Amino acid sequence: MTSTTTSPAADTFLPEGGHPFHITPNEERCLRTQGARVAPSPVIAQAASFDEYVRQLMIPPAVMDLYRKAADLRMSPIEIEAMRKHLAPLAPGSNGLLRRIMLDKAERDDTHPPYIRVACTGRGTYDQWAVDHGHIDTLDDPYGDIGSPAVLEIWPAQHYSPIHSHGKTTGIVFCLAGQLDVMVYDRLAKDATKLALVTLTPGQCAWLTKTNFAVHKVYCPLDGGNGPTRPDYINNTDEFGASFHVYLNEDELTVQAYDESDTRDAFDYIDEITGEQRQFKTYSDLSWSILRRVLANTPLG
Ligand SMILES: [Fe+2]
């Protein structure tokens, strides 16, 4: 077992009983212990003990294939520094692209603090803003797309997703930068039972299939600078976590019938305020081809 799956880092912040997981410190300790004992392991990492190796033995081969292909992915120090510049809180009107998107998303949906989805194929809803705010000169195709099989997700410190299900997809959540907490639930419901809490650091990976860990909530526990997190929370720092997500539909693994709610084109989630089940069409906010150009054009230092 690795230390990162059993205890939060010193700079993490989890309010007692509050958002995002509504657990006491004692419950957190129990859920982290469960995460460090359950087999197969909800986390893929280089095994540091025989026990850890054995717990990873029964992870499905399709998942291990996704993990191995992603294993050497990291964000470069320059990309991380440029991303911080675009997330940092500045005076109104001079914010970077990522904070502009964050604030716009928060205005449209205050049920949970926003995170940013970057499609690695296709286009994003806010791509045009990269041109409108002078980060790049031109954009070829401003239209959004859904269902990219690979997505970069940017998690501002203390922001989190609602509890949601990835249906019958098979996928990985590979940590690229910062730190992320993942709570795994037994089903998609407001009163779902929490099964395990794990922490991911760069190079570590959570995974899911239709029968393992398909329902989860993701949270960046780093310092947000604005007190306890809550549904309408907006952070006040440039701290963030980043993760690379890959989801394969069932028909990409085997030839079987499937319906839309079980694919990556949409995922079901529980509204954090009303507790009702809703469906999110997986439009992305930006495309990686645009964000990469924006980051390359960002003055550093
Ligand atoms: Fe997810």
Task: Describe, in plain words, how this protein is organized in 3D.
By secondary structure, this protein is an alpha+beta fold. It has seven helices and 13 strands. The strands form two sheets. A seven-stranded mixed β-sheet has the order 1-8-5-10-3-2-13. It starts with about 25 loop residues before the first helix and ends in a 5-residue tail after the last helix. The structure holds fe (ii) ion (FE2). The site of fe (ii) ion has 4 residues, from β9.
Secondary structure: elements and pairs:
Elements: H1 25-37, E1 43-44, H2 50-57, H3 61-70, H4 77-87, H5 97-108, E2 116-119, H6 127-132, E3 150-156, E4 164-165, E5 170-177, E6 180-185, E7 194-200, E8 205-208, E9 215-219, E10 240-248, E11 266-270, E12 277-281, E13 286-287, H7 288-296
Bound molecules: fe (ii) ion.
Number of continuous helical runs: 7
Mean pLDDT: 89
Largest sheet: 7 strands, mixed
Q: Which geometry do the CA atoms define?
A: globular
Query: CATH topology, anyone?
Result: Jelly Rolls
How are the strands of the largest sheet arranged? Answer: 1-8-5-10-3-2-13
Number of strands: 13
* Rg: 18 Å
Which CATH first-tier class would you pick?
Mainly Beta
Q: Secondary-structure element sequence?
A: HEHHHHEHEEEEEEEEEEEH
Second rung of CATH, namely the architecture: Sandwich
Distinct small-molecule ligands in the complex:
fe (ii) ion
Give me the CATH superfamily: Jelly Rolls
Low-confidence stretches: 1-15
Sheet-strand content, in percent, reads: 15-25%
Category by helix and strand content: alpha+beta
Number of domains: 1
